[in-house]
């Protein structure tokens, strides 16, 4: 069964074709990063317009690369939530038009479930139940994946997402947007013991995350440094990146550690753009190993937003009978 996936929830216009939920036949991603970098972050209206311009070519290219025609496709899976509303509507409306004119069923996919499903494309043996840690630019969630369709939330961020916290620190350090990958590289060369940033906890919700305090700390730390007349030199930037990354990674791993301490033996699956972070991958790897729990790390190519993950999840949704009418709407926020 061939599923065409379409993803436009933020600043990547993506289309992909996946066979039987596991076989990646094509994946095309057009990133708008360069445009948004000029403004230091994603500008929603620009994102919607860029999706509108790119979507037809990207879908066409995904079909061509898979060597398939639209008539070969069994269902079109599209991200309908959560994300930037104008951006989501672009992909959803295109998918609805495609479904209408070709008679192919429309399958709505939740973006976070898509991120998790990216792992199905590389780990053929991976099946629920498992624990998923989704860390991206817009989301930070610890989830129990009970089956391919039903998820239970264990913990989530109360404020910013992990990726947002990386991007903000990068910005205050004068690094280009999106700063996650650059922070990752700098943290590898800096000294993580230079600054003692606090690892936060959330009162009464031990599995929830909070990154806003950490974000404010780095902003204040850099401003104090500058107000004393100091330069943001390479050593300062790298040491701050290393110390910040250490605290941010610990904020994430303490929750996972608690879950394991409480006796969870389910495999752990990492997902989302921040799952590309080498320090997080290493820390979670060590944690899983110390508890003898199996860990699945997505390849870097499938961490960030893409449509292959939407097609993979779409396959399981479609198989379970989930389809949407052509009146399907998009939602900026939506519980998993
Ligand atoms: O999953 P994604 O592409 O978009 C959302 O669904 O939000 O995640 C993008 C986020 C950005 O904040 C980016 O800075 C971050 O992932 N990111 C990283 C790394 N690579 C991308 N953060 C930390 N380390 C990385 N290596
Ligand atoms: Zn995402």
In short:
This protein is of the alpha/beta class and 336 residues long.
Keyphrases for this structure?
336 residues; alpha/beta; Nucleotidyltransferase, domain 5; 5-stranded mixed beta sheet; 10 helices; binds 5'-O-[(R)-(carboxyoxy)(hydroxy)phosphoryl]adenosine; binds zinc ion
Count up the domains. 2
Oligomer: single chain
Tally of separate helices: 10
* Strand-pairing-aware structural class: alpha/beta
Major beta sheet summary: 5 strands, mixed
Describe the structure.
By secondary structure, the chain is an alpha/beta fold. It folds into 2 domains: 2-118 and 302-319, ATPase, nucleotide binding domain (Nucleotidyltransferase, domain 5), CATH 3.30.420; 128-297, ATPase, nucleotide binding domain (Nucleotidyltransferase, domain 5). The chain is 43% helix and 18% strand. It contains 10 helices and 10 strands. It has helices spanning 33-37, 44-65, 85-102, 111-117, 162-172, 180-189, 212-227, 234-261, 278-291, 308-319; strands spanning 2-7, 12-19, 23-31, 75-81, 106-110, 130-135, 140-145, 151-156, 268-271, 295-296. Strands 3-2-1-4-5 form a 5-stranded mixed β-sheet, with helices on both faces. Strands 8-7-6-9-10 form a 5-stranded mixed β-sheet, with helices on both faces. Helix 2 (44-65) packs parallel to helix 3 (85-102), helix 4 crosses helix 10 (308-319) and helix 8 (234-261) runs parallel beside helix 9 (278-291). The chain is globular, with a radius of gyration of 20 Å. It starts with a strand and ends in a 17-residue tail after the last helix. The model has no long low-confidence stretch (mean pLDDT 97). Bound molecules: 5'-O-[(R)-(carboxyoxy)(hydroxy)phosphoryl]adenosine and zinc ion. 5'-O-[(R)-(carboxyoxy)(hydroxy)phosphoryl]adenosine (KG4) binds at residues 10, 136-138, 163, 166-167, 178-181, 183-184, 272-274, 276-277, 304-305. 5'-O-[(R)-(carboxyoxy)(hydroxy)phosphoryl]adenosine (KG4) binds next to helix 5 and helix 6.
């Amino acid at each position: 069964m061939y599923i065409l996936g379409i993803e436009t929830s933020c600043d990547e216009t993506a289309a992909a074709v996946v066979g039987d939920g596991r076989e990646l036949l094509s994946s095309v991603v057009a990133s708008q990063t360069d445009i948004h970098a000029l403004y230091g972050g994603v500008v929603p209206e620009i994102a919607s317009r860029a999706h509108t311009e790119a979507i037809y070519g990207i879908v066409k290219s995904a079909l061509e690369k898979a060597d398939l025609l639209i008539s070969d496709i069994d269902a079109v899976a599209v991200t309908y939530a959560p994300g930037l509303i104008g951006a989501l509507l672009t992909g959803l409306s295109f998918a609805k038009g495609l479904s209408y004119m070709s008679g192919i069923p429309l399958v709505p996919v939740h973006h976070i479930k898509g991120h998790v499903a990216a792992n199905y494309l590389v780990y053929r043996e991976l099946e629920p139940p498992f624990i998923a840690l989704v860390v991206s630019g817009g989301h930070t969630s610890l989830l129990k994946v009970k089956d391919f369709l039903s998820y239970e939330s264990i913990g989530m961020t109360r404020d910013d997402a992990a990726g947002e916290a990386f991007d903000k620190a990068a910005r205050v350090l004068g690094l280009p947007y999106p700063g996650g990958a650059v922070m990752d590289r700098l943290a590898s060369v800096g000294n993580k013991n230079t600054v003692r940033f606090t690892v936060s906890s959330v009162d009464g919700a031990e599995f929830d995350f909070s990154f806003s305090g950490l974000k404010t700390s780095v902003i204040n730390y850099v401003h104090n440094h500058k107000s004393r007349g100091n330069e943001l030199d390479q050593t300062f930037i790298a040491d701050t990146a290393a110390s910040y990354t250490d605290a941010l990674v610990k904020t994430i791993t303490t929750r996972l550690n608690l879950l394991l301490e409480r006796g969870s033996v389910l495999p752990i699956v990492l997902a989302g753009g921040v799952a590309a972070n080498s320090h997080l991958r290493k820390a979670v790897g060590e944690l899983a190993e110390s508890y003898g729990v199996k860990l699945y790390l997505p390849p870097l190519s499938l961490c960030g937003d893409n449509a292959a993950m939407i097609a993979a999840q779409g396959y399981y949704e479609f198989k379970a009978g989930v389809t949407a009418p052509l009146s399907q709407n998009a939602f900026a926020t939506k519980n998993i």
